[in-house]
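Chapter review. Work through the record for Adenosylcobinamide-GDP ribazoletransferase before attempting the end-of-chapter questions.
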Amino acid sequence: MQPSSIIRDTIQSLGFLSRLPLPRDWLDGAGDSLKTSIRAFPLAGAVLGLLAGIVLLLADYLRLPALACSFMTVGTLIAMTGALHEDGLGDTADGFFGAATPERRLEIMKDSRIGTFAALTLIIATGLKATLLAAIMQRAGTGYAILALTGAEAASRAAMLALWHGLPSARPGGLADNLGSPKWETLVCALGIGLGILAIAIVPAGGFTALLAALIFTTVLLYGFAKLCMARIGGQTGDTLGAAQQLGVLAILLGLVTAL
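Structure tokens for Adenosylcobinamide-GDP ribazoletransferase:
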């Protein structure tokens, strides 16, 4: 791959995954090449993590409490992505636990209204993410927390593609179904990028123990989630892919906290 293609794919991935004000001419042909561009999802995640890290750094410079800094950072991520993945997590929680049949679960997941399970899941997930990030700040410093967040945002989007590749589509005609499952070579490229960024981000301060802990937590949690997806709806949808990204970030941060 040429560097120019990686830059193009990253920009197009940011155009799909975020609401950043990117120049329109940068996104020309994005829809046609998204199947290939998704290999750069981890790079797009790293960019979003670094941008949110600026907020974390500024908030810490103002001597705000670590938890307040973390909530502001998580809020920045939500604003930049338009709550894309959080919406998927909420819809998945409502569908998986709000109905008794796969058909009804998929129907609920498509409904834009938020239910009790979605509300509680988002509250818990957002609070847990901010709390874990604050713990990393206090144990290893703000700089390492920024690196950890960057690595988590990158690797979680690679994990999301693994779920997309590994499970059949549960909703014909949906966005994930229309795009088609990522090709094996695309997945391998994304996983390599995601793992590389995660290792560069956390090994210098946390060591290989922290990296191993993050990978174990992520693998176990997402494997269990994949099994749940098959049991509840018989595969994956765009909502479950968003949920996988959110769970991936939580698993990585949780693994890091246990190792620090």
